[in-house]
Amino acid sequence: MSQKIKVGIVQHSFNEDIDFNRARNLTAIENLAAEGAELIVLSELHDSLYFCQTEDVANFDLAQELPGDYTEFYSDAAASNNVVLVTSTFERRAPGLYHNTAVVFDKDGSIAGKYRKMHIPDDPGFYEKFYFTPGDLGFEPIQTSVGKLGVLVCWDQWYPEAARLMAMRGAEMLIYPTAIGWNPDDDSDEKERQREAWITVQRGHAVANGLPVISVNRCGFEEDPSGTTSGIDFWGSSFVAGPQGEVIFMAPENAPTEQIVEVDRERTENVRQWWPFLRDRRIECYGNITKRFLD
After folding, report:
1. How many CB atoms lie within 10 A of CB 158?
2. Which residues of 68-80 are buried (b: 16+ CB within 10 A; e: fewer)?
3. By CB atoms within 10 Å of each CB, which of 31, 58, 240, 245 scores lowest?
């Protein structure tokens, strides 16, 4: 297995036409594979508009059975292009039971594994608790032909515990399909603080765990169908950070982007030797971390 992996980033905007979104994703996958990508990462919930801006039971019709036509489409995309593919979907597990789920396909089109989003937000414009049950598959890396992928989803990216547990399970990189953006009513300073916090916390996960981080966001403005808010302006800025938090690639804020970025696993090994954070953890002192708060 090569120490250097070519990773394809797909930062797109989306509309309500699922077939259109899938076709455009497929074109991106084909283009990146033709340029040598071995691993391709799509953003969160890339089949449709970000429907969680409102609480509407009609949106449950967007959910996908797994396996089903969703997995068939992206399985064919992975196999036809000989790539490992990280995707994200609204999973219908059973009547009344739904998850925000990342599905990873290996180069032969087989499902290498799934991850169900563990941390579920509930904020204005991001009413995910209405739709998604918290994941129950744990923080388990997914073994693929390009290595063990620590796949997490969006809101998970703010939690150092999730990144740490993936690292402790042997993840070779952390991958975050994402849908995050600004409230258009916020001023420019507040917008920049939010975006920089998002970048900084994930770079911190890279440093603390000595692992590359791949974060792929959507871009473009999406209206709030209810008209209650001013919608969401998804800020793009998909990026790849190395194991010292160094930014290897950063996509623009407001433009669709397809990019190949090289990740060097040998560098991960070297950094962990220089900065042996896992060695020096005082695990006997951390019992209280499982409590909600220390009064």
Report:
1. 16
2. eebbebbbebbbe
3. 58
Is-contact 178 42, C-beta < 8 A? no
- Which of 71, 73, 51 has the alpha carbon at shortest distance from 62? 51
Which residues, including other chains, have CB under 8 Å from residue 216's CB and lie 6 or more apart?
Answer: 9, 10, 11, 41, 42, 43, 175, 176, 177, 178, 238
Query: What percentage of residues in the chain have a pLDDT greater than 90?
Result: 98
Percent of the chain with pLDDT over 70: 100
Quick check: bond before 67 cis, omega within 30? Answer: yes
The span from the first CA to the last CA of the chain, in angstroms, equals 49
Nearby residues of 81 by Cβ (< 8 Å), 6 or more positions away: 29, 30, 33
* pLDDT digits 0-9 by tens, 137-186: 999 999 999 999 999 999 999 999 999 999 999 999 999 999 999 999 99
CA atoms within 13 A on the CB side of 285: 3
Radius of gyration of the chain (CA): 18
Mean per-residue pLDDT of the chain: 97
Q: Which residues are catalytic?
A: 44, 117, 154
The pLDDT assigned to 204 comes to 98
Name the phi and psi angles at 224, rounded to 5: -80, 115
Chain-centroid distance of CA 4 in Å reads: 21
Residue 2 above 80 pLDDT?
no
State the Cα–Cα distance between residues 72 and 83, nearest whole angstrom. 15
Q: Which residues contact 153 (CB under 8 A, 6 or more apart)?
A: 44, 88, 100, 102, 115, 117, 176, 177, 178
For residue 20, give the H/E element and its range: helix 18-34
**Count of CB atoms within 10 A of residue 224's CB?**
14
Residue 1 has pLDDT above 90, yes or no: no
pLDDT in tens, 67-81: 999 999 999 999 999
